[in-house]
Amino acid sequence: MSMKKSMKTAAVTLFAGCLVMLGSNAFATLASVFGPGTGWTQFQEGGTSEDVTSWEVTPGVGGQDFDAEYLLYKLEGSILNLGLQTGFDLLDGHVHYPSKNYYAGDLALSFDSDNTQYEYAVDFGLFTADYQSDTVDAGSGDGKDEQGLYKVKTWNKDIYYDGTSGRHDSSPFAMDDKYFGLELKYSNVGEYTDNSNVKSYYRIVAFDLVDVLGEEWNTEFLTIDAHWTMSCGNDEINGRIEIDPVPEPATMLLFGTGLVGLTSVLRRRKK
Predict the structure, then answer these.
(1) Cβ–Cβ < 8 Å for 58, 90
(2) What is the dihedral of CA 52, 56, 60, 62, to 10 degrees?
(3) SS3 for 252?
(4) What does the angle CA 27 – CA 105 – CA 33 come to, to the nearest 5 degrees?
(5) What is the largest CA-CA distance in the chain?
(6) In the chain, where the domains are located
(7) Which of 44, 48, 103, 260 is 20 to 30 Å from the Cα of 115, by its Cα?
(8) Spatial contact of 128 and 137, defined as CB atoms under 8 Å apart
């Protein structure tokens, strides 16, 4: 099964009202949990982002604390594993600077080849508030939903850098209302400090594509889009996976039978 990958990345400078601050322009190297031999694949660079020289997302104003860095995937049968690595704190989803709180958004997903609308969200189960400090949840009322994969009804897009300036659009931010939720098959979170002493954070989630798309999820060409940002929208990360369909057993049987027949004909001709 072949896969084509593309990632659109963006790193932007914010003006008065958001993150006008100095900071290190470093970004972390890939965490060892995603390293060689682990089966993870990075989304390849692409798009029109500023100053991108490789598959990392370059830092925006604010340095490492407000940097989105890596988006990865691993497909094991019908189980899709997604890995997100950022300079933004993904352990508790909260960064305070210098007198304002910023929060991690949800991982937005789409399965219909349209990355202008995302139908699903992975909620990390963290407290979430938007740029105006209003709590964001899908019905709990306290800014915190159960960790899981959700079919999204509406998105919260209240982030400072929402595209109104015309430079780029980091929306959507976090799930505001839902239709239903599904349990994740796996979830993991951690922090990583590389050899240059640059700290970053990662989250890994996994779910069954059968639960989302049905038993025949892999019989047709499948496109999966992913997006993540923080409540400032200072940086964003996007990715697209394209998965070729797997031939049905009956089709493979006919193909094999045809090869056998062709081989017999060639042998008779040779004799």
Answers:
(1) no
(2) -150
(3) helix
(4) 45
(5) 87
(6) 3-270
(7) 103
(8) yes
